[in-house]
Amino acid sequence: MFGLNKKDTSLLLVVAALTLFAPFILNPFPTDSGLAQFNAGYPDLMQRFVIFGIFAVGFNILFGLTGYLSFGHAAFLGVGSYSAVWMFKLLSMNVIPAIILSVIVAGLFALLIGFVSLRRSGIYFSILTLAFAQMSFNLAYSVLTPITNGETGLQLTLDDPRILGVSATADGSIPVTSLFGLEMRSTYEMAVGGWNFQFSAGYYLCAIIMLVSFYIAVRIFRSPFGLMLRAVKCNQNRMRYTGLNTRPYTLAAFVISGMYAGLAGGLMASMDPLAGAERMQWTASGEVVLMTILGGAGTLIGPVLGAGFIKYFENIFSKINDNVLHQWFSWLPDGIEDFVVFIIHPFIGKGWHLTLGILFMLVVIYLPGGLVEGGQRISRLFKKNKSSDDGAAAKTTPAE
Amino acid sequence: MSKMDVTRRGVLKTGAVAGGGLMLPTYLRAAGHEGFTNAPTGSTVTLGFNVPQTGPYADEGADELRAYELAVEHLNGGGDGGMLPTFSSKALEGNGILGKKVEYVTGDTQTKSDAARASAKSMIEKDGAVMITGGSSSGVAIAVQGLCQEAGVIFMAGLTHSNDTTGKDKKANGFRHFFNGYMSGAALAPVLADVYGNDRKAYHLTADYTWGWTQQESIAAATEALGWETVNNVLTPLAATDFSSYIAPVLNSGADVLVLNHYGGNMVNSLTNAVQFGLRDKTINNKNFEIVVPLFSRLMARGAGENIKGILGSTNWHWSLQDEGSKAFVKSFGTKYGFPPSQAAHTCYVQTILYADAVARAGSFNPCAVAEALEGFEFDGLGNGPTLYRAEDHQCFKDVLVVRGKENPTSEFDLLEVVQVTPRAQVEYAPDHPMFAGGALGTCNPGA
């Protein structure tokens, strides 16, 4: 289907099912239960899951295929966000032109940075991209304040021109982002028993765009172009000796992954029309590297899983406070309760980085292939059991 | 074949979900009936406390959180009631808000606009918070205020001192109790002129974001009006931790006053650097070199230690004030935590009480009703004397304190002495003052 082989088609369908049913999957606990703390099925976080999924999938096209480790991808995300917000300020609140512009601008920016950085490979390439990203961050943070509004972040105001839309709505507030009238923030809530599922228009737009970009990524992975990129990762020197110029290929991969990042940035701004300079900071670039490695570099679904994993920790674990802990462990005797809370305290709330760091270490040490490898190991375990069952059955049927 | 399997399952799933969705009683937004976002339906109401737990303002954030917890306790009738008995409005009865028990959720703003908005969004979308409060940075406060306006909940700003919060970025759903850069300038400049003379050359180091810009503008304007000259203004990144490279040029600039438009950890570091460079022992233009920190807090004074002695600044509130409200608040905060509250804790506590009181007086959690109850509200007994919540820009007007780092502190908390209580009339300004112009409140948004 769609020009994919059987395995990839089922992978795409699995991803599609996961994203489309995310409001259910991520909301496993009833709203009133104590475990509702772990529910992640609210629009903002779901949007983040898929947007950072796009970001990581794009990053993986560069890192997973060519092995070029860029430490400056957040710059493209930031550029995308700024372009999108400017589109909202100047043109209209429709998200389509904003997203298109953010992809184009990020692509051009990536062409520029890639042209310079790709002259070197390995660690030198990483340092060059890091330098460019840090430069863009500082530009956005202070030098280009008229364009980026510095630390405060670029925001919409009531006196923006918005030539194809309105500066202010009839009741005097800033219009909201929309897709031809469908407001991105509009949410349909469905109460089933104790559960409350939220279906947000913004999330589904992001999810569909994510599926399309995932599909494109699959096609790139399976194409001759993708094979060429893998060859670059394998042995670039040998390719050069055979008379092949690898630069156009790596540059194309760099620009494509930059455009993915720009798309993610544009979508972020479309869901929440604000662009802050910290989106371009090196920590943000490092985050996407973490996502990709955590999920499994070079695999198709890995980066998406990694993105979800990290965003989940950032948003769910950071919100657990001592109060919540005391509620959970209130059944323990007083002294022990305080002790347990004291032990867990450093790992929750502002300590979520610590928890994530430990998990990241465990994954890298025991599952070098990331979460995908973990999944493969589990499925192999099941398959082994299954095949021994099959083995008994196979004897009765003649083999081909 | 397996391909077909998956599709069929997908089709079945979709069908089942669509069918289920149609059959089950569904409705748009639980709050839809009430006509505003996150209307509390049960016996509880949830407030969102969004404070920096990491980053340069983490100390302030921790103290704000303590104050919020104390306020919730008092609203629910626990503790000694704090400032509730001294508050001029008696609408609150200590049984929660409108009989609903107050619960809260917390989040970390990381002093970053993006993270703060994500945190506030999750409070609104996931936890059903009907009011968001907090923030210890104007950039964050403005970003979250914008979000609350869009989402249709009330934003009670915490520690934010930029003119823009109630100036060009003001919003109908946002309210600020804290004072601002203009008020600091208006209160501080006459004292500076008295103590240091009218003929001074000032060098500004300014945190590079909305608060720094507007405070620098305010201080420069106020001091220049009294005869000072502004030699230079250098912007420093908010994330900076070492300011030595910014201090060295001060010596060669011919300036004899250094104005540090820094707050929190920034100010602690820049002041320490400045003192280490021996600035305070220098004599320039036959005048002793002086350092001014326009926005002061006790937490910063503690961080800066010895270096703070004799330095002038302004503050919103100080625990040594002797009015009934302040005494009651210091007492109940001290009983609970063992040390006196900071100005950040005070403003956050007061904002929570003011919100609860406005809901009680309006008889509804509807943001528009609450906003109407707060607009033009005059109150007393919350530590700052008679105060007005001005309707035109949602800014509180009250007395401003000019303080100085104490030379001989009697305890680790007794670090500031109040030099002057500047009366409210001296720090008032017109809503369309040039430093505040360019924005509009818009109309109140009750959300869905």
From TrEMBL, chain A:
Entry keyword annotation includes Acyltransferase: no
InterPro entries (UniProt xref): ABC_transp_permease, LivM-like
Membrane topology note: Multi-pass membrane protein
MF (Gene Ontology): branched-chain amino acid transmembrane transporter activity
Keyword Nucleotide-binding: no
Residues annotated as transmembrane: 12-29, 49-71, 91-116, 123-144, 201-221, 248-268, 288-310, 354-374
Annotated localization: Cell membrane
PANTHER family in the cross-refs: ABC TRANSPORTER ATP-BINDING PROTEIN, HIGH-AFFINITY BRANCHED-CHAIN AMINO ACID TRANSPORT SYSTEM PERMEASE
GO cellular component assignments: plasma membrane
Coiled coil: none
Superkingdom, natural source: Bacteria
Keywords from the UniProt entry: Cell membrane, Membrane, Transmembrane, Transmembrane helix
Pfam families referenced in this protein's UniProt entry, alphabetically: BPD_transp_2
Protein name in UniProt: Putative amino acid/amide ABC transporter membrane protein 2, HAAT family
Automatic annotation (TrEMBL), chain B:
Keyword Magnesium: no
All copies of domain Leucine-binding protein, residue ranges: 44-406
Keywords: Amino-acid transport, Signal, Transport
Any single biological process term in GO: amino acid transport
InterPro entries reported in the protein's UniProt record: BCAA_transport, Leu-bd, Peripla_BP_I, TAT_signal
Superkingdom to which the source organism belongs: Bacteria
CDD domains given in the database record: PBP1_SBP-like
Recorded family membership: Belongs to the leucine-binding protein family.
Protein name: Putative ABC-type branched-chain amino acid transport systems, substrate-binding protein LivJ
Organism: Donghicola eburneus
Lineage: Bacteria, Pseudomonadati, Pseudomonadota, Alphaproteobacteria, Rhodobacterales
